[in-house]
Amino acid sequence: MTWRTVLASPILLIAALGCDSGDPTRSGADLVLRGGRVYSLAWPDPDPKGAPAAGAPRSADGWRPDAQAIAVVDGRIVAVGGDSEVASWIGPETRVVELGGATVLPGMIDSHTHVVSYGELIGRVSLLGVETEEAAVERIAAAAATTPAGEWIVAWGFDEGAWANRLPDKTLLTERVPDHPVHAISLHGFVTWENQMSLDRAGITGTTDAPVGGSIELDDAGDPTGILRDNASDLYAEIIPAATLDQRIENARRGLQAMADLGYTAVHDAGVRRGDLEAFTALADRGELPIRVYAMLAIDDEQLIREWIERGPAVEPRNRLTVRSVKAYYDASLGARGARLLEDYADRPGHRGVSGGDYGFDRALAIEAMRAGFQLGIHAIGDAGNRETLDFFESAFTQAPGAENNRHRIEHAQIVHPLDQPRFGALGIIASMEPPHAVEDKSWAEDRLGPERVRHGYAWRSLREQGARLAFNSDMSGSDPNLFYGLHAVVTRRGKDRRPPGGWFPEQALTPEEAVRAYSLWNAFAGFAEGETGTLEVGKLADMTVTDLDPFVVGVDDPDRLLAGEVLMTIVGGEIAFESGVTEPVPGALYKNPLELP
Ligand SMILES: [Zn+2]
User: How far apart are CA 344 and CA 349, in angstroms?
Assistant: First the structure.
């Protein structure tokens, strides 16, 4: 298969295509949606405070859709307008979807996911939502009861942020599960919890050196407690049997289909290693990628990165798989106190976390990738982590001329000192952030940061006002990727439990319009795709998300009701990737649509 090399400037295919808009002489469109509330987003962005642009479809009563119907030919939009305007596109072969008042939005994009590992997690012991060590051990023991002795048990999902002050050790786990090696990975992957057999298999003792950017916790006697932090889990990379290619393909398919079921037409996958890329490529070759994938290659897969630096950014022919981004880590997580702070942690004096070279950040390779035309997405959480990452970009731009145009990103941009907020806009760095993290971390973030610094956390509005472009995402599987959960968090700063009633630092909330834009057009921009997707306009790819409620109206009138929203259809390039009640849901999916309302 021949991939298309990506040009240095954004691809604008529409102009070259000469699409047959206004030429209904053919036998009709492939697909027509009508009778809906269509928001094309084909009007300018709201101002930095959220006030809608002059051209926005609004009246004294508030928002109203700007179209009712859409026609699609060969995967592209050929008409957007009123039902009567689009009617001429209906021919004998046209599939007509009667929307019955459902809402049509530009295809939703999740700009930071880990879909292959999500597919893999579906097969693991889930510790999601488990609150105590005892309950976690019971779940693992139950799995052990049906697993042959000596075989690995891999569990996932205990929340390292919520558990940070009471992390378990190996004692109870070893006692209850003595005959299986157990490797339990935390929700966001920054902590692992091992039993004794697992430590033995990996050869970890009191004298083992942890890899750079990792630590092995020891007890007073100098023995490993069973808790490994940050990069220390690399010690297991070669020990636990890796998935075969067929399993990885299946994991990728499950992860992507689960996202299609939640309304997403594309994902940016943040940290793609060779095995994941092989799986995506195999699905692309077979024409079986359910949604689009923008692969951000994992910089620690150095061999893979070097091959792509040789080759340069590229897009596969059907436009479903793009490789033009590299993902790196600058610091770790706030919950587990690995994020690098400018001042000590409020709840651990003398401690500021780790960053940069101490966390394994490969500066030279990052600059080489930038020179080869790749976007860099760098994970930075703490205020020092963010400052140092901005410093890195600033100096890298002098060493890699032209690189400043490649839409580099800071992934998470979680705590940003006010002095650094304007630097995002000035340097052209996109703040790629997770609305769910704000409403999930609210219970402990202030403990880590104290009352002053916490105000500069998860600061969507401040960053926009200071000129930053935003991209919104879930970081699934660490957070529930449900689209309506994300929209609700953006608009209300409240959790699924609708708390706190007034919102957590509500001055940082955005408007429903900004929320919808962040998940569509702004994410498309972060993946160089705004010429092809992100709005519903003639000539663009027909990527659409159909929902049962109208987030523009509900988000203003009764925002908590957003949580009850459901996706009805997900359409990618005119093909139906998900249709409520028609297509099969992914068996065992961890996060389901719709959300349960408390
Ligand atoms: Zn991530």
Answer: 6
